[in-house]
Each structure stands twice: as C-alpha cells, then as structure tokens.
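Hypothesis: this fold can be encoded by more than one sequence.
Test: take the structure tokens below, design a sequence, compare later.
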C-alpha cells in the first residue's frame, strides 16, 4: 500500500497523467460513470459525483487505431477493430484496413500477457494506438458483453466456439485447486 499517502499530491498526479484525461471506475462497463476531464476543476467536479467507487484517472489517448480483443483461456485472442467514438451498434469496424503485422502481433501478445497476469480466463482488452504504440486502456472485463447484436454474428460465433472449447477442455482436465 505504498502508493496510498495523505494528502494526495494532486498536482503531481495531474502533471503525470496530463489533460485531457478520463476518470472512470476501475471495473466499469458501458461507459457508466466515465468522465472526460480537461482541467483540475473538471476533475474535482467529476470526482465529487463518484460516490464510493474506486476510480482510475487515465490519459486520453488520441488514437489512430483502436482494437477490442476477446481473450479466452488466457491464450486465444481475437482482435477486432473497434471505434468507441461511434454509436454503440456501429463500433465494430466492418471493413478494416490492413494493419501492420508487427502492431497486430504486439496487441495479441499484450492482450494475452495482461489476462495471464490477472488470471482471467475470459476478458476483453482494449488498446488505443497512437503513433504505432498500443496503450491498454481497458482490460478488467471478466464478464464482457457477448450479445450477438452488439458483437455481430462473425465475432459472436468466434467467442461462443472458443468458450465452448475451453469449457470442454476444463471439464476433461480439471485444474487443481
């Protein structure tokens, strides 16, 4: 708990994170209680609305590419081009451009590594890419949205198949407790 100190040095935090930034629950979903803040005053106004939620302050990444990755069994990764700026039903990019192979490999590796570190067998990891560098900006989603209408049929089928494969694998070879 060495990072907990009183009083908090807010000026150092704001200097480190920078503005604009996002104040959001560490385990949120669906943009619930997410605040985009551009100043110290906006931060404290948003913070005062968070009640007892455990919050994260995160640098806003001005991204060129954005990926949402489903990770199943800490190994299988499905990278989906995604645009969180679009309306909910249009966020999955239907006709993505070709991406740099090195970037795709890095995103897949990092998504897998994050899930292994967290011990999550099912998760979504989101990366905002700026200047060719992927930044993991959302990665604590152990119960992500799997609705066919939000995922689209193609992605839904991949997730269901890989979840079924993992369930069968674990039923045949249970883990030691």
């Amino acid at each position: 708990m060495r990072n907990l100190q009183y009083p908090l040095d807010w000026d150092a935090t704001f200097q480190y994170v920078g503005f604009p930034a996002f104040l959001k629950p560490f385990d949120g979903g669906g943009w619930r209680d997410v605040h985009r803040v551009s100043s110290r005053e906006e931060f404290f106004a948003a913070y005062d609305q968070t009640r007892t939620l455990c919050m994260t302050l995160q640098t806003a990444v001005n991204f060129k590419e954005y990926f949402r990755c489903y990770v199943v069994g800490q190994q299988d990764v499905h990278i989906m081009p995604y645009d969180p700026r679009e309306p909910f039903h249009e966020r999955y990019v239907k006709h993505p451009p070709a991406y740099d192979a090195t970037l795709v490999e890095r995103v897949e590796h990092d998504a897998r590594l994050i899930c292994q570190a967290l011990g999550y067998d099912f998760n979504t990891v989101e990366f905002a890419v700026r200047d060719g560098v992927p930044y993991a900006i959302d990665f604590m989603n152990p119960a992500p949205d799997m609705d066919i209408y939000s995922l689209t049929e193609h992605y839904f089928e991949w997730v269901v198949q890989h979840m079924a494969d993992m369930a069968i694998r674990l039923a045949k070879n249970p883990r030691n407790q």
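The first helix runs from residue 10 to 17. The helical segments are 10-17, 40-47, 101-118, 148-151, 153-172.
Hypothesis status: open.
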